[in-house]
Design brief:
Structural class of chain A: alpha/beta
CATH superfamily of the largest domain in chain A: Spore Coat Polysaccharide Biosynthesis Protein SpsA, Chain A
CATH architecture of the largest domain in chain A: Alpha-Beta Complex
Shape of chain A: globular
Oligomer: homodimer
Radius of gyration of chain A: 21 Å
Strand content of chain A: 15-25%
Helix content of chain A: 25-40%
Distance between the termini of chain A: 46 Å
Order of helices and strands of chain A: EHEHEHEEHEEEHEHHHHEEEEEEEEH
CATH topology of the largest domain in chain A: Spore Coat Polysaccharide Biosynthesis Protein SpsA, Chain A
Number of helices of chain A: 10
Number of strands of chain A: 17
Strand order of the largest sheet of chain A: 6-9-7-8-10
CATH class of the largest domain in chain A: Alpha Beta
Number of domains of chain A: 2
Largest interface: A-B, 33 and 33 residues
Largest sheet of chain A: 5 strands, mixed, barrel
């Protein structure tokens, strides 16, 4: 429990993406969508950690274009806690910058790195696992949360785990970490099925818990250029340098993910197997795993169904009537409607590309 | 040719129906939809006969609720030519009333009875067949147009034809009529297939051509109650009786179709086999027979398709994006969207009933 006082939650809320078109648009990415409730996904993420983490220790990393809207969503989060990336630089830089900021406030700061556009079915279980993760992190381990697979998913990276870590000093750790044997790329279906049967593979959730001091050491070791840039940025900010200077420093940072730049290289990385009903909600199809009606449909908004099962039926504007549909995705928004089979939602990007080619930019 | 001078075109435009929901609504029936062009179906019907029939001889029979809108659509049709049925009484009464009106203007009047919500691909061929029909009608025959089947349609009534009528006096009759052996109910699929192979069956188009005097004789014979009511109505109108009186007379008329009340009973009915690309456009599915793009899709409005074939994709409001669809119907309107497989569009009525049950009357 004592560890919670050091925990800083970092919401990664800078993502773009068109896979949820037409609901997501260029200026309205997934984390701002209302998929599972009347709240946006980033609000859901915030609400999950708020029972244990006060606003003063919630950080939000985002892009210039989204910062104002996020600040409006979270008026109680101090403005200083919003890390605005003037240009997209993937996750390693913003985590390093956030870690530096936390370290200055608390030398024992623990960072919970939380993607802001995921779904978690059981928030209590999530906090329970997070608590165990903070206990591991306090000892200097870099903890990832790995999700026990429920089906042969081909859309996720996997983590192969090995033995238990050494016996924790704190016997209250309920969810014990395992050594990581390997990070594994997204598999094909047969491989995913073999992972599922093997029982030693977990989905890589992208959720990390680590001491700020630990991650900065790793950055120094594996991404020394980034470490220097972070130092420079902190100095520049203290000296109130202008936006151009800050922009120049950000643009010098390597455009690299924390997974690729640190996790897959570093020593002392562990994983806690968890089962709190997780999805990265990568495409519309992902919602079929979380049906909301008695016919296995995911339904949102004003929808009427007749003899329809296993569909995603989403309306943010007007009535959607589905008759005799199976495994389809139908999304109704104010200006645009998408209809496609659920197993082809990964091709929505191609459709958006087609809109660009045809110069139908009003729908992007 | 001389016969054209006697032809009065009667547009039957009183129909209701919800099979084209959500585009058709209770106050916006099929004949007012823009399916094949930027014009409504009733305008298409009007335009087809206008090359041969002047506005003075175009009559429109419709309901009280639709009269104003139809008059606005056809400002050049004399107001006297609009027959407003104060309550729905099917086709026999309005045809009889129209025939009476025409007869008073021209004792040799020929009536072309035209449903106003059908599709005809080849309007020139249609007029050519109509011309032959008027020549037959002038001799006192009641002529129906029968469509040579192109597929085993189960949604239409059929006409079995026999021998040719006697040699026409006018050798210019290009499309000669046949005796009718029987009117046949909508068949099941196997029966429809046997009709198609037999070559002696035609689709009953519901298009009739007949002398006004002839049909009134038949009405007197087969529906004497209607004949009396028509006489009474004409007298009442001449005497400028009030709306209540007229309403009472209309409500006394039998609620019966001309097919059932006259055609299937009368002598001297003939059929002209025709092939001008006809459909009664009974459901959304019917549109799949008239594809508009290179992938066999019927497309209307702002639609983008990727890898989609054999669909009906209709948008009257905003963009519709179809990805990987086959044999589906998607209809996007301002307040409501319908998605269903093409072979289930006959169940759209059930869906509309469901809306009524749920008291979602704003979508009816």
């Amino acid at each position: 429990m004592e560890h919670w006082d050091h925990v800083h939650a970092l919401l990664l809320a800078g993502g773009k993406g068109t896979r949820f078109w037409p609901l997501s648009r260029e200026d309205h990415p997934k984390q701002l969508l209302k998929l599972f409730s009347d709240r946006t996904l980033v609000e859901d993420t915030y609400s999950r950690i708020r029972p244990m983490v006060p606003n003063e220790r919630v950080l939000v990393a985002t892009s210039k274009g989204l910062a104002t809207r996020l600040m409006a969503l979270f008026p109680d989060i101090p403005e200083d806690n919003v890390i605005v990336e003037p240009l997209a630089r993937n996750t390693a830089p913003c985590i390093a910058v956030s870690a530096r900021r936390c370290l200055e406030r608390d030398p024992d700061a623990i960072l919970a790195v939380l993607p802001s556009d995921h779904f978690i079915a059981d928030p209590n279980m999530f906090l329970e696992v997070l608590e165990s993760a903070t206990a591991h992190a306090a000892r200097g381990e870099i903890v990832t949360l790995g999700i026990t697979p429920t089906h042969p998913e081909t859309g996720y990276g996997y983590i192969r785990f090995g033995e238990f870590e050494q016996e924790p000093e704190n016997e209250e750790i309920r969810h014990r970490a395992r050594r990581i044997q390997a990070f594994v790329e997204k598999p094909d279906h047969d491989t995913a099925m073999s992972y599922l049967k093997a029982g030693r593979y977990l989905w890589n959730s992208g959720i990390f818990v680590l001491r700020a001091a630990t991650i900065l050491d790793k950055v120094k070791l594996h991404l020394p250029g980034l470490a220097r840039a972070v130092d420079e940025l902190v100095e520049a900010e203290k000296a109130h340098k202008n936006a151009e200077t800050l922009m120049r420093i950000w643009s010098d940072m390597p455009n690299i993910s924390v997974d690729f730049g640190i996790m897959e290289k570093a020593e002392g990385i562990v994983v806690i197997p968890a089962s709190f009903g997780w999805s990265d909600v990568g495409t519309w199809r992902a919602l079929t795993s979380f049906p909301t009606d008695e016919n296995e449909n995911f339904v949102h908004g004003r929808v009427i169904t007749v003899d329809s099962t296993g569909n995603v039926l989403y309306s943010s504007h007007g009535l959607l009537a589905a008759l005799g549909l199976e495994n389809m995705v139908v999304v109704v928004t104010r200006g645009a409607v998408l209809v496609c089979p659920a197993d082809r939602t990964q091709e929505v990007r191609a459709l958006v590309d087609e809109l660009k080619i045809r110069d139908m930019t009003e729908y992007l």
